[in-house]
Amino acid sequence: MTKLCIFVGTTLGGIGGSLLAGAFDMDTFSLGSFFLSGVGSIVGVYAGWKVAQHFK
After folding, report:
1. Domain of 27, in residue numbers
2. Among 7-11, 22-26, 28-32, which range has the highest average pLDDT?
3. Is the pTM of this model over 0.85?
4. How far is CA 31 from CA 6, 36, 37, in A?
5. Rounded to a whole number, what is the largest CA-CA distance in the chain?
6. In terms of C-beta density within 10 A (0-12 exposed, 13-18 middle, 19 or more buried), how is residue 48 classed?
7. Residue of 12, 31, 44, 47 with fewest CB within 10 Å of its CB?
8. Counted domains in the chain
9. How far, in Å, CA of 51 to CA of 33, rounded?
10. What are the pLDDT digits (tens) for 27-38?
11. What angle is formed at CA 4 by the lines to CA 2 and CA 19, rounded to 5 degrees?
12. How far apart are CA 21 and CA 50, in angstroms?
């Protein structure tokens, strides 16, 4: 269950970071877009882990 929640959190966080970069009018392959996607993925890992701990 933990791995699944982390996977979903990472995926959704990365997508959210990419959408946030698009809202700031960054190109898809820019450094800022890559950075925001990475930050979103890290936040998604943490959120997925916390959700998995809640259901444990």
Report:
1. 2-55
2. 7-11
3. yes
4. 25, 9, 10
5. 40
6. buried
7. 31
8. 1
9. 26
10. 888 999 999 999
11. 120
12. 25
